[in-house]
Every structure is written in structure tokens, then in C-alpha cells.
Please model this.
Amino acid sequence: GNIKSILQDVYQYSQNGVNASDLEQHIQTNRGQLTQWVDDIGQFS
Model:
């Protein structure tokens, strides 16, 4: 995807994290997605 769509996904993830009662669980659940974002964003740098 392009950088803008990735950033929108990251923003949405952050908003969900703010509202998550268990942030640690939220991070664990989304670990694969976070790794994918890092890889995707790395392609732009």
C-alpha cells in the first residue's frame, strides 16, 4: 500500500489502543500488523 493508507491504519490502531482496556493484549493481538507496517514503511525510506 502507499504511505498514506499505512499512516491511516496506524492512526486507527492508535485510537483503538487508547480505548483498549488491556493495552498489552492489544499490542500482542496486533503484533503481526505492526511488523507489516514496519516493513511497509521501511520501503519508503
